[in-house]
């Protein structure tokens, strides 16, 4: 295990919190873009937004930064988990855990792993097909006002026409809810930003964010499957 300040739990928590807040900002953008499906305009606004995100050089560059941040977040989280397990007697942890913390705060590694598995499936369904293999739907492109766009809306309809996929996505969003419920306020605390004056506000915003974002994400596959959006 690495020695010194960069190998300490404190530094790992700092970097995990920093990357966590970056990923939270990405969730806001990603959620806002995907929520365009609720315009019920045949996917026009959504496909236009997805085209902009997929062709803008700044966004594409940030995509690389996002993957790097996600990788650092996962690695830091796993290292902290195993470091804490090695440093804490199992019997003591079992006796004291329930009295000092919520179950989801003790299960961040498990919840994070479930989200990672869900993320791999999500990348397969959409990122891989838009960047490498091509879409499943035919025709794979649509035209709005003389402009050609990849039909990501049609791809979403195809992917979410399978009940097992919808169930996995909803369970992924449920895991995200619990992960955010602890992770949001924990990030501010680890970065030293959880001042007493703003503690209540941070907790409120964190709880609200933890409910709204996963709920909107979960509503998308459900709405597609139930054909509420078209």
List the helices and strands and how they pair.
Layout: H1 9-34, H2 44-55, H3 57-87, H4 90-100, H5 103-106, H6 108-133, E1 141-144, E2 147-150, H7 152-159, H8 163-190, H9 196-225
Antiparallel strand pairs: 1-2
Could you tell me the CATH topology label: 3 helical TM bundles of succinate and fumarate reductases
CATH superfamily: Fumarate reductase/succinate dehydrogenase, transmembrane subunit
Q: Enumerate the spans where pLDDT stays under 50 for 5 or more consecutive residues.
A: 1-6, 91-95
Shape: elongated
Overall pLDDT level? 82
SS class: mainly alpha
Structure summary:
By secondary structure, the protein is mainly alpha-helical.
What does this structure look like?
Mean pLDDT is 82; it is low at 1-6 and 91-95. The chain has one domain (5-225): Up-down Bundle (3 helical TM bundles of succinate and fumarate reductases), CATH 1.20.1300.10. Helices cover 77% and strands 3% of the residues. It has nine helices and two strands. A hairpin with a 2-residue loop joins strand 1 (141-144) and strand 2 (147-150). It is elongated, with a radius of gyration of 20 Å. The protein has a two-stranded antiparallel ribbon. The chain has 230 residues and is mainly alpha-helical.
Please tag this protein with its features.
230 residues, 3 helical TM bundles of succinate and fumarate reductases, two-stranded antiparallel ribbon, elongated
């Amino acid at each position: 295990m690495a020695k010194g300040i960069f190998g300490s739990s404190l530094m790992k928590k700092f970097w995990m919190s920093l990357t966590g807040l970056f990923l939270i900002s990405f969730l806001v953008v990603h959620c806002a873009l995907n929520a365009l499906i609720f315009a019920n305009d045949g996917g026009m606004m959504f496909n236009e937004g997805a085209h902009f995100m997929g062709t803008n050089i700044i966004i594409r560059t940030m995509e690389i930064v996002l993957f790097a941040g996600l990788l650092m977040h996962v690695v830091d989280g796993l290292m902290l988990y195993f470091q804490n397990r090695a440093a804490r007697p199992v019997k003591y942890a079992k006796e004291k855990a329930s009295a000092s913390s919520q179950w989801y705060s003790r299960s961040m590694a498990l919840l994070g792993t479930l989200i990672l598995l869900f993320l791999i499936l999500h990348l397969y369904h959409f990122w891989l097909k838009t960047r490498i293999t091509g879409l499943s739907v035919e025709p794979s492109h649509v035209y709005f006002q003389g402009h050609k766009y990849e039909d990501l809306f049609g791809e979403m309809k195809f992917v979410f026409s399978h009940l097992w996929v919808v169930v996995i996505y909803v369970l992924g969003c449920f895991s995200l809810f619990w992960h955010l419920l602890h992770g949001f306020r924990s990030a501010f605390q680890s970065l030293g930003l959880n001042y007493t004056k703003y503690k209540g506000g941070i907790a409120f915003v964190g709880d609200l964010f933890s409910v709204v974002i996963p709920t909107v994400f979960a509503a998308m596959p459900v709405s597609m499957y139930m054909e509420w959006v078209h």
